[in-house]
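User: I want to check something. If I give you two sequences, will you return the structure for each one separately, not as a complex?

Assistant: Yes, each is folded on its own. Here is the first sequence with its structure:
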Amino acid sequence: MGLFVLRRFGVMILTALCLTFVVFVLTNLEPNLEKLAKTQGNARMSDEQVQTWLSNRGYDRADFVKYGEWLGVLPGYVIEGADGETRSRCLRPGVDPEAAPRFCGILQGDWGFSTVFKEDVSKIVLTRLSQTGKLMGWVMLVMVPSALIIGVLAGMREGSRLDRSLSTVSIVTTATPEYVSGVIFITVFASSAVGLKWFNGSATSAMEDITFLNFTLPVLTVALYGMGYIARMTRASMTEVMTAQYIRTARLKGVSFRNIVLKHALRNALIAPFTVIMLQFPWLLNGVVIVETLFNFKGFGWTLVQAAGNNDIEMLLGVSVVSVFVVLTTQLISDIGYVFLNPRIRIS
């Protein structure tokens, strides 16, 4: 088991390096850098002035070198610009140049400075991530138990009226995008057009104080979309287990249907949905972009939209690091959990 985890962890580190390098190269393409120069400098810059601005700040060097500096395995650049001013990657405002460190990258905890929010990227990411974490927590609390109950009830008796009804509900929720269900919820339950002003159409106040009124609609919008997928997977797994030979044997022995479901079928039926549930975490982290924008909830997804729309390269890179880490970590936990839940994999 230890060798399995170690091997998976090694693959995880390699994958993280590859993915972050791809994102780094894409965000540092020439059009993005040119837009950055004109945004931070002067919108009327000539091509020569843009190139000078980029050269003075180390953007014109090889991608591998810049990536190594950003990662923190190579020392940060020190460039004396054409204007006579010396610039260093590791030098921050208010810091003595002689006291500036040589290495200043992700590994050293220096995530860069946001050109849009005018603050350290790490502080912004942690703040926004905590807000999205609250939303993810409530969504999982609503989505997972509801989906498992629907899936188990539908799969207990395949082809029954209950199965067809619950399967239809699952398909409808999965087929309805968040921006559609969110708009419907706001129109019906939060606007004066219909008259049912039961909830708040904006979740901005939930950043300071979560209440039933300001947080119900965004949670339901996200939960309904993911619930159908988990329910369908649980239903398929439950249906397969209920037709297994050991279930038939239990029935022939006279075991009650309730005991068959709870003691024999349920645990084996939850093996496959466990992986799907774990994969909901990275989906929620990046998939709440629409919901956070729709309900004006300034979390991780909202920050991603702002960074992309304003060409905030350092913020985009910081967001990508968190996204890659969450995706790979949840996959590692999913693999380990699957081994524990399935005895056949442990034996093999």
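And separately, the second sequence with its own structure:
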Amino acid sequence: MEIEVNGAPRVVLEGLSLAELLATEGLTAKWLAVAVDGTVVARDSWDAVHLHPGQRVEIVTAMAGGADQLEIAGEHFSSRLFCGTGKYATAAVMRQALAASGSQLVTVAVRLLRDQSGPPILPELELDRFRILPNTAGAHSAEQAVHIARLGRELIGHPWVKLEVIGDDQTLWPDVTETVAATKTLVAEGFVVLAYTSPDLVSALRLEDAGASAVMPLAAPIGSGQGLQDWSGISRLRQRIQATLVVDAGIGVPSDACLAMELGADAVLVNTAIARAQDPVGMATAMRLGVEAGRAAFLAGRIPKLPFAEPSSPVQGVPASS
């Protein structure tokens, strides 16, 4: 039978008791509380309460307050720096840079297996350490993007995808119309869609309405290193959309990532700025610190901008000249 445990479906034996469920989840009874369909179940009743199809089980414990984790589709990330895996000089440098970044989510391209394609990337990654996010980079239509996403799901084994549909080959600007269409199809098929888009409010709203779990506006054209070009656009998106907001593409230096986070982005995705830096490992560390500083500043709340000066020292009691 199927039940729901902490928001996720579970297939368990018919009539399983709460105590048996905890055992199958690898949990010990100490420091836990359990509710079934919204009703708290006393600890001494766990053996006697047997579950039925469709029931909702909540298992909670106490954690340190103030944990600032990012949640996407029920999965939690302590790092708000997402990284790409392309353009590194060697696989060894990539591994070192990813470790220094602290990233828990990395993107990979889905490509035909040919001699000129280079070695597969997955054997070079610690798959138990990262959420691997296949992307549809190179797609120019919704149909092509959906096809690549389906291949990526089969390859990686989960339905997460970074959706990209390119409308212009020179700027790699996204085709928002096709991206929205692809999002609708993929969401209907159970995909968790993180959609690359422009920093346009209406486009972001359309993607959110289509079911995208994350909206990923570009900071600047992919790989350009130009930094955040439309900071007011990112700010508008933060004020209006409820989906996860990830600033993607064009980040050049840690201050770009920091600014995006100060504006309220939930995360940033960086590839070229790290991979092509003179010291990729050092730059990965710097990007991690930039993201952390920007997030801390956003949570702290900046002072309002004023059109005039406001003295820091008291204006009364200034000694007169002799």
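Because they were folded independently, the notes below concern the second chain alone. The two ends are 90 Å apart (CA to CA). The chain has two domains: 2-60, 70-300.
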